[in-house]
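Q: Here's a chain of 888 amino acids. Please give me its 3D structure as tokens.
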Amino acid sequence: MPLSAATRLGPYEITAPLGAGGMGEVYRALDTRIGREVALKVLPASYSADPDRLRRFEQEARAAGALNHPNVLTLHDVGRHDGTPYIVSELLEGETLRATLSQGPLSVAKALDYAVQIARGLAAAHDRGIVHRDLKPENVFVTRDERVKILDFGIAKLIEPATPDEAIDEAATATRGTEAGTIVGTAGYMSPEQVRGRPADHRSDLFSFGAILHEMLTGRRTFKGESGVETMNAVLNGEPSPIVEANPQVPPLLERIVRRCLEKDPENRFQSARDLAFALEATEGSPRPAVLKAKRGIAWAVAVLAAVTAVITIVFLQRRDPEERRPLRVSILPPENTSFVTGGQVHPALSPDGRRIAFLARNREGKIWLWVRALSERAPQPVAETDMFALPFWAPDGRQLGFCAGGKLKKVDLATGAVQDLWDAPRQRGATWNRDGVILSPLGGDVIYRLPASGGTPAPVTRRDSKRGDIFHRWPFFLPDGRHFVFLVTGRADGRLTADIYVGSLDSDETRLLLRDASNAEYVAPGHLVFARQGNLLAVPFDPNRLALGGEPVLIARDVAYLKFADLSAFTTSSNGILAYQTAPVRESRLVWLDRAGRDVGSVEEPDRAGTSKRTFGSLLRFSPDGRSIAFSRLDPETQNGHIWVHDSARGNATRVTFEPAFYSGVVWSPEGQRLAFQSVPNYELREKALNGAAGERTLMSVSSTYPKAPLDWSRDGRFIVYRLLDPKTAWDLWAMPLSGEPKPWPVVRTPFNENDARLSPDGRWMAYTADESGSAEVYVRSFPGSDDKWRVSTRGASLPCWRADGRELFYFAPDGKLMVVEVKPGTSFDFAAARPLFAFPPEVIDFARFNYDVRPDGQRFLANLPHGREAPASITLVSNWTAELGR
């Protein structure tokens, strides 16, 4: 009997049916423990009649569940409900290969793409000693983004024919695996040894694979008879029809691969799925019969119909003669169930030989991982969990990868996966690695440091020049000699902020100006410097021996992700002519009113609506003390400037507060609601501005005397501004600045960990803040202005604590998207109840870089900056031989 919605099978709650058939019923379900949607297959009760068979099925299902490969369905769990077995797996969106083939044969490019993915999935399973035994188009799934997944590993262990007649039917017939005398598989896709009831090994899966690939290329069943008996006889004695007769575009080499898979004797087939995958990849560029006389290059144009196939083509093109090269652009998509990280300081990194690329992607749980993908393969591999400021960089030999995570500069050995901490780097601003084992990095400071890759003591290699107004040195990149390097100097000159490229040396602290108004830069042989200006990627001739430019910059690409406040453009190059850059589409957002149940009860009208369709709200958001006004920022993607506005709820209009070309971050209200304090980026000054215009704008604290900082709160008695400050030795700390008498700031919380998000209670007695001392950011409360007493409020990660105006409630944002509330009891000590969820924000908020919220003083309404409208997914674009277009 079909299961109805809300039926529980252990921790799984049925939400909707997905399909049914001889193999059982499939449902969409919710894992109530972690809130994850899954697919739940309930197998027919008859399959569990034999306890021994059920036990062996569960053993193999668990073995298959241990597989972790992008082309194999991920099994989460197996269990029993009222004696009936069920399987829990990842939930896929798309259709089976059988449904795809119902439309006719596939193109050669698509068939090859699917075939390589299937072969790689089989190779991963066979490496673990797992044989499918019933591979067929019904057990191959194609997701909406063209990822291929092999389904139902282990099912053949459970199913066996009830009668001899059922054993030769077209429906699935399965067995006790290797037990002699029992027919295993589906007629038409079974290997000859399966038809004969003989033991089947991994080579039987390769025969089934050959039948599937033959069908993908021809649109016809490989072995087909009027009955099951005739079909099985064809498997034993017949030969498949020539593929070229049905599809003249199929390369002869590909037809030979199919025929080898379909050899009757297992000894004559491919002996491993890995060898089969290699042969298929080598086929992707082979000429086809219809175009053998066409010009060289046309075959490649056809061969790159699929984007992933084109990536492999890029690698091949690097080996051709230079005069035959031409630029080729393709896109790389993120791994399945992930998205590229687009907020923060992130960019991809090509290996020196151009064969691999490292990038960041966030999974559905919100965790960010560093991934490495070989361009000749489709499946990237996760390397290490990190954060959005990882900024990967390669060792010269490509065997190790450096990155930043948890305020540390780290390196990972790609062969073993071993990660090693090198140095503290609370605010990473790029790194580069030479052949002598020297790493250059700012390590969160304001100059470049020289660091031994094996570990040791950092030593400064550049010095700030006060005459030219230096603020920061960052984004170093070694030149070919391994002694000189280019880097970016941000500074202040003639009353404006500057970002210029200089060249420095390990052997001297002398530097030379190369380019003005630029971003991070990289050198590419045989002689170009690549950099960006306002999202435009440019290249200029450069002689690394004379350390001199040789011409004017030329445009390479537009709309490259660019972060103005960091002067960072998301691109990477290799020495063999491959360029990669990441796009980061800006998603529009809106300020939404939510009640305590999380219901949308209205939104704040956009200020200056005319002509601002490309602008979006920034992450700043703060209520005035009386709750009548809202301070927030607006981001202009074209200029990367962010300006502060104040919205008057009573009048329904907004007034712009800042006007200088900068990016303003962190805004707090004075107690009387007549002044604002905020941060100006990239010079990181703390500024104050009166809203009535009488006092104008003044600087509270300049970066010239300290490190980057941002205001977080203004005490209700008006005596202090609490701000965060980045110290290279202790990461982000919390400081207080007196606003009367001598303005001598003092540290409130200063530890080796990161402290942030400080908010003072309305009575000024307590300070809520986040700290990552437990390994993840959690909310803590301590006495203010000073005490060693503290209380941990959250338990599973938290950010953005917020007080109700009477101090009776404390809110915070949980990593799963829930708004949590903590009841606080009045008294002389901090007495609070356990946190409970109030409501959940929309799922897309977790991956929204500019999310922020604030609570109205009465605690009955919340204002949140939520994503609005659809955003095209970010992608990484690879360009081979891009220098061929320079000068055209």
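Q: Can you summarize the key feature?
A: Residues 108-127 form the longest helix (20 residues).
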